[in-house]
Structure formats: C-alpha cells, structure tokens
Amino acid sequence: MKEVPIWEKSNLSLEEAAAYSGIGVNKLRELTNERNCRFVLWVGNKRLIKRRLFDQYIESEYSI
C-alpha cells in the first residue's frame, strides 16, 4: 500500500498535524478541545485535523 504524503491528506492525526505545522501535540489538543474549533473532525473518540481548514486557521492567526 502506497504511503500518502501529509500534504495530500485531507485529514491528519494530531501527530501528523504537529509534524506538518510545527505546533506541539498538546497545543493542538488544547485548540481542538474548544467548542467552536472549525478544523477538528471527531470520529468516535478519535480526533482528526481537517488539513485545509487548519491551513486557513494558521494563515489567519497572529499568535497561538
């Protein structure tokens, strides 16, 4: 099975999102715990990061 590069995935695990963005896993967990977080997708108890919305979020923020 071919490995899909992170930048081609639509959803990322917390670990992949941390490697992709340089933001720590704990900070990502904190951000995605917020009620109005637009870039989190819950699959049962598993949390995935919607990469495109995450990119938009990072572009629009001055500091995290």
UniProtKB/TrEMBL annotation:
<dbReference type="Pfam" id="PF09035">
    <property type="entry name" value="Tn916-Xis"/>
</dbReference>
<dbReference type="InterPro" id="IPR010093">
    <property type="entry name" value="SinI_DNA-bd"/>
</dbReference>
<protein>
    <submittedName>
        <fullName>Excisionase family DNA binding domain-containing protein</fullName>
    </submittedName>
</protein>
<dbReference type="InterPro" id="IPR015122">
    <property type="entry name" value="Tn916-Xis"/>
</dbReference>
<dbReference type="GO" id="GO:0003677">
    <property type="term" value="F:DNA binding"/>
</dbReference>
<dbReference type="InterPro" id="IPR038148">
    <property type="entry name" value="Tn1545/Tn916_Xis"/>
</dbReference>
